[in-house]
Specification:
Distance between the termini: 59 Å
Strand content: 15-25%
Largest sheet: 6 strands, mixed
Strand order of the largest sheet: 6-7-8-3-9-10
CATH topology of the domain at 65-91 and 105-258: Rossmann fold
Radius of gyration: 23 Å
Number of helices: 9
CATH class of the domain at 65-91 and 105-258: Alpha Beta
Helix content: 25-40%
Shape: globular
Order of helices and strands: HEEEHEEHEHHHHEHEHEE
CATH superfamily of the domain at 65-91 and 105-258: P-loop containing nucleotide triphosphate hydrolases
CATH architecture of the domain at 65-91 and 105-258: 3-Layer(aba) Sandwich
Length: about 270
Amino acid sequence: MSAEEKPAAQANGNSAAENSAAENSTTANSTAANSTTGKAALAVTGLSVAYGNVVAVHDATFTVAEGDACAIVGPNGNGKSSILMGVTGMIRRRGAVEIFGAHAKNGDVKWAARHGLTLVPERRQLYPELTAEDNIILGCYTWTRSIGKARRSDAYGRAIGLFPELKPHLKQLAGTLSGGQQQMVAIARGLAADPKILAVDEPCLGLAEAIAKRVYDVLAEIHGAGTTLIVVEEAPRRALTLCNKRVEVRNGMTLHARGDNPPFPPTVVTA
């Protein structure tokens, strides 16, 4: 190689290296952008919940992107349900909660529901003296006071359609249904609210494995239709068959939040 050619070759090498670095940077930025499925559906910052002098949740912080299925996991008694209750306004809290960018009012369940966040509570919390159908229709109360309009709505039709096995029991008192049937009614009631985010607290508590699988099949269908999903579960392996994001809770604190099908068991990162 001549003396004149060496600088040119070096310049070309430097240019190629710069181009390669630029491509790698672009790929990394693209990967980072794609790791989030969309804008934040739910953003929780510094959330704390107390029952009298007993602190159940301390400084919980996490984000759920629109279209995510997020599992909140951890042992019983560590604050998972309290996080959901604080987020949805069932109990008062400290800290900030945003639902699709709007600051959620503290302790206001109606506000949260009207902005798209609906909770299916632990142990169903149905009205046992009402029929299964009436319990489901109550879910429509967030957007209509008309029973006729509720019955004709797409939201109610979708809720009923997901559980064909409930149709013979719609006129039956909710308190006389089996545990699995009651859980189906509770989920259907949540769907009747036409939520953008459906939060389900311990959906398989006390259920036989076959019924638990049916419940998770329905949750997968709900998520597949575009609803952002939050599931509180004591059994993380089951939750992670559905969810692409995990928030782990220990002693009322969120230890970490991971996305993109996190490995199990996790490496716990202390807060």
